[in-house]
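Handout, page 2. Input:
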Amino acid sequence: MYLESIKSPADLKKLSLAEQQYLAGEIRQRILSTVSRTGGHLASSLGTVELTLALHSVFDCPQDKIVWDVGHQAYTHKIITGRNARFDTLRQENGLSGFPKQKESLYDAYLGGHSGVSISAALGMAEAMRLHGEEGFAIAVIGDGSFGSGVAYEGMNNAGRSGEKIIIVLNDNDMSISRNVGNVANYLAKMRSSRQYFRFKDNAKSFLGGVPVVGKPIRNALANSKKTLRQMMYHSNLFEDFGLRYFGPVDGHDLESLRDVFERAREYARPCVVHVHTTKGMGYRPAMENPSKYHGVSPFDLKSGLPLKPSDPGFSGAFGRSICELAQTRPQIAVITAAMTDGTGLEEFERRYAAAGRFYDVGIAEEHAVSFACGMSTQGTVPVFAVYSTFLQRTCDQLIHDAAIEPKHIVLAIDRAGIVGADGETHQGLFDVSMLRMVPGTVIYSPVTYRQLEADLAEAVDNGTGICAVRYPKGAQPALTASVLGENTDSWFLENRGGDTLLVTYGRLAEELFLARKSLEEQGRAVDVLVLNRIYPIPEAALEQTERYQRIFFYEEGIRSGSIGELCALHLMEQGYQGQFRLFAVENCFIPQCGVEHGYQLFHADHDSIIKTVLGESLH
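Output:
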C-alpha cells in the first residue's frame, strides 16, 4: 500500500506515524519474500526495520551520513533509498550488493562488510565535514556483537573527546552471528535491566524544569549528581565515561520512541550513544526462535522456513568432524572461534568440549584470538583457530609479531578460502595465501578432499611447528577430483598422461583442471595435472617434476602477487627453465559478487578457458 510510493527518504517523511508502522510490515514482507528466493542475511535486517525508518525520518540523508557496521542489517535502508524496484536482484550477479557500497548509491556513506569500523569511519566523516564547513551528522549503526571488536573502542575513545556531531546507535539484539559472549554482553544486559534509572532521570528533569524558582537549581544539582546515582543503580555507564552522552535504552521496534530519542540526539549535536534494544528476526517466528540459523540463509520455503535444497555441511562439516575425532585422543587440543561457531562447523565440538574448557568463543575479536592462541601455545596447548579467510586478514600483525618471531605452534583452520560468490568483494577469501606466505616459518595446506583435510589437520596438530594453516573452500568436495584422488593424502599428486604440457593448481580448482584434461584427452591431446596439497613450502619433489615439461600453466584461486604460482616460476627461472610458463590468478582487482564459475572465468581458470589456453586459442 505504501511501499511502492517510497522512492527516497523524502517520501518516508510524508507519512504519519501510523502509516510508517504499516510500512514497516510491508518492508518485512518484502525482505522475507526476496531473501527466501535469493538467500542473504535475514534475521539482522528483520530486526532493524523500525530503527531504519526512524533514522531516515529524523535525519536528512545523504547530507547526514549513516555508516552501517556490518551492512547485512541495511536491507531496509536499501529499500527506502530508491532500490526497492531492484531489490529482487539482491546478491545476484550485476544486482544489488548484500552490503552498503558507495558506488551503488549516494545514500550508502561507507562500504560495510567487516565489523567494528563504523565508529572510526563516522568520526572521520564528521571531522572532514567540519573542516569543509559542511552541515550534517555522522551516524554509526553498530551491533552489540561488534562491540567485542577492539577497533570499536578505539573509535569510541576518540569520538568522545572530539566534540563533533557523531551519533553512535548501538543496535543491541543480544546476538552477533552466534550468541554474544563475554562481559560486554553482560554489561549491556545490565543496562537494559536498568531502565528505571533513565526513566527517572528524564521524568525528573522534565518535571523540575517546569517548577518555578527552585526547579532549575534542583535539576542542575541532580545533573551534577548523576554519576553518584548511576553508581548506586548499576555501578557505571561505560559510554558516559568515554565522554559520550547516553540516551536509552529504547525499544527498537517502537517507532514513536525511536523518533523521539533521535530528535533528542539531534538537538544535543555532540558525541552521543543511542542504545536501542531490538529483536533479531523480528516478524518471522522461525528467525526469532533461531536467529543464528537465519543469520545468513540460502533460498528457503517461506511457510516452513526450511531450505529449498538440503544443506550440505561441506568442508566446514568435514572440519568439524575431523577436529572432534582428533580431540578424543589429543587432550592438548583447544579450539577457538570468533563468533562463528555455526559457520565454521563447531557446534558439535562446543557441545562435547566446552564444559571441559577446550572451546573458546572470543566474540568478534580475531586479533585477540590469535594472540590468545599464542599465549595458550606457550603452555603446551595446541590451539586451533577456526576463522573465515576474509576475517583472517585482520590478524596480520599478530601472526607476524606474536606467532612467528618467537615461533608459537598454532593451527589456523581457514574456512571460505577462495571465491565465495554472492557476498562479493568484502568476503572473498583471496588474500590468505599471499599474506601467510610472507610470514617466516608458516606451513600452508590446501586440501581438495575431505580425506586430505582430515590428514592435513592431524599433521598440523601433531607434527607442526610455528604457524600451520589448513585452508579449504565453502561447499562440498569436487566430485571428479575426489574420484581421481581417492584416499591420496600425499603432499602432492601427479596424474601422468605422458604429455609435454603440465597443468598445476591446488584446492578446489583441481576440478576445473581435471575436467579440462578429460575433454582434451577426448580430442587426442595428452596433458598432465599436478595438484599440490601442501602448498607452502612447495614440496621439492613436486618442483623437480615441473622442470621436465615444455609448457606449464599454473592456476590459482587467489591474488597473483605473493602467490604460490610466482614461487613456482621463481624456482623454474633459477633452474634455467627454457619452456613456457603462464600463471593465471586474480591480478590487481577484486572479484565482484557472482557465481564461483563466473569468478573463475574472470581470470581464465574455468575448464573451457583452460582448454583454449592449451590449444593456443585466444581468451576473451
